[in-house]
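#struct-help
A.M.: can someone run this one for me? Single chain, 248 residues.
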Amino acid sequence: MLRHLKERGLIWPAVVAAGGLGILIALGTWQLERRAWKLDLISRIEARAHAGPVSLSRGLEAWRRTGDIEYMRLSARGRFRHDREHFVYMPGREGPGYHVYTPLETPDGRLLLVNRGFVPEELKSPVRRQAGQIVGEVEVVGLARRPVAKAWFTPESDLAHNLYFWPDHANMMGAALEGGNGRPQPVPFFLDAEAEPRNPGGWPKGGVTRLELPNRHLEYAFTWYGLAATLVAVFAVFAWGRLRSATA
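D.P.: on it. Structure tokens below:
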């Protein structure tokens, strides 16, 4: 049989086709595994995001124990330090704008960076949204978010102009700690405030956390398996043509 294939010039085409088939099947199987992982992740996010809120102290305990606090629903009390707002450029449905990150100083001496939500470009200045600059102690409920590294093509933070292009926790916290009373203990993660209750005046508009994760892995798996089937068909036609020409 091997000699027969060699005489028809099919050995190397068969080897290449078998290698390609193996790669395509492996890629399809990997996408199915990724789909299972993504479905489990989505399920865990949904469960956490809609659970009853736990205290900031509980969140810190979970952080120290496992570091797994992503999307955990937390409640924190304290006073906003509006003079230390930070702005992350984030175009929204309303057009160009920013996410407003404001330090929240808790009664027990912690400093938590709260993403209070979106403001359009024209409302970046606090003077234009004074009603939302809440004075006094507040309770904030939201979802814990881990700091992330800067993406490869993301611009560097412009610290001189208080302009960030990703949630730069280290530099935001460093700026928030400057000139404060005492030395509050920095919380090592963010809190994305929920949409309700709305801030006075409607701005910043909370509830900006994206809970929908892209999940097209089944589509990708079908694509790879489809290419594998196509490769088999193409090779079969090619081999059949070689064998027929040899016997003609």
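A.M.: thanks! The first strand starts at residue 54 and ends at 55.
D.P.: also worth noting: Residues 2-41+216-247 form one domain.
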